[in-house]
Design a protein that fits this description.
Blueprint: H1 3-13, E1 24-28, E2 32-37, E3 48-50, E4 53-56, E5 62-66, E6 72-85, E7 91-106, E8 114-126, E9 132-136, E10 138-139, E11 151-160, E12 169-181, E13 187-202, H2 205-234
Antiparallel strand pairs: 1-2, 2-6, 3-4, 4-13, 5-13, 6-12, 7-11, 7-13, 8-9, 8-12, 10-11
Length: 235
């Protein structure tokens, strides 16, 4: 019998919890490979890999405040993902994060202060040199429209690490949703419904092909020059 199952009633009686160990996951994209622990993704949920983009469909990632209770509602979540290029002749280029969701501000009597917000940051750290860079998650526009129906929002952050020539980095995505109201009747609600994380590798294969072709032409010219100088010397 599985030991966890055998001792489960005892653990429940003692108010203990049996934690499930995080399982490492590796997803190989077109030019980069992502690694993470699936049990540590939390509200983001398990992503789907398309090309070099990770698509997350968050589950219950929302914040709300109704009639001033709570006065300030917020939900925070953080995930860590490591990434490296598939080709040893490439390094990491750009990191981009794009998020979408919806929000609702409802105040039929126009008596309450109310609002919603999305914020946070991405932090990229080279795991060999420990160099770091960050960028704030910034909404594409104001989220202040009041009334039904709910409205869509989007936000983004980006970082360019191509100058690092990094071959292994950790990406930390920190998200925070905020909703507030002061008096009744009022409602402030915001939810995150989609997150896309994309990392590129550089130089692109076409760039390498052009570079190698250029080096080949230079080598050919040098050989021709050497042969010509040799003939002149013999004459």
């Amino acid at each position: 019998m599985n030991l966890k199952l055998k001792f489960l009633p005892l653990a429940m009686g003692l108010g203990l919890s049996l934690n499930v160990a995080a399982a490492p996951v590796t997803l190989v994209g077109s030019t980069v490979t992502y690694s993470f622990d699936d049990a540590l993704l939390g509200l983001y949920g398990m992503p789907v890999l398309v090309g070099d983009s990770l698509f997350f469909s968050p589950n219950n990632f929302k914040a709300e405040s109704s009639n001033g209770s709570p006065a300030l509602g917020f939900t925070a979540a953080t995930m860590n993902i490591s990434v490296q290029p598939n080709n040893p002749m490439q390094w990491l280029g750009s990191v981009s994060l794009n998020e979408v969701g919806d929000y609702l501000l409802f105040d039929p009597l126009n008596v309450s202060a109310k609002g919603v917000a999305v914020t946070g940051q991405i932090r990229v750290r080279d795991l060999n040199t420990l160099m770091e860079t960050t960028d704030s998650i910034t909404p594409a526009g104001p989220m202040t429209a009041v009334g039904l129906p709910s409205k869509n929002w989007s936000a983004a952050a980006a970082a360019d690490v191509s100058s690092w020539m990094s071959t292994l980095a950790n990406i930390t995505v920190e998200n925070l949703l905020i909703a507030y109201t002061t008096t009744a009747p009022s409602l402030a609600f915001i939810e995150k419904k989609g997150v896309v994380l994309q990392v590129t590798a550089v130089p692109e294969p076409e760039t390498w092909a052009m570079l190698l072709a250029g080096l080949g032409l230079v080598g050919l010219q040098l050989r021709r020059k050497t042969k010509a100088e040799g003939r002149i010397a013999l004459n």
